[in-house]
Amino acid sequence: MLPLVGAELKPVQLYRHLLRCCRQLPTEAMQKHYRHAIRQGYTSHADEDDQERVQMIVQRAVVDADWILTKYSKNK
User: Which Pfam families match (predicted)?
Assistant: First the structure.
């Protein structure tokens, strides 16, 4: 469920994408854990003004989400 590589996601689009990715996790406990982590990350970076830094955070979040989904899809 990885968005187009190189596409510039806005923070709200990223937030929604990551929450949708959580639905693919195998257990409710994992889903709850990662939803909480996503919310915390979103609020902690809400005051970020530097667009270059925002894009770095977005790219890293997309890569991390892909890694997590790949990790748990192998365990099924």
Answer: Complex1_LYR (PF05347)
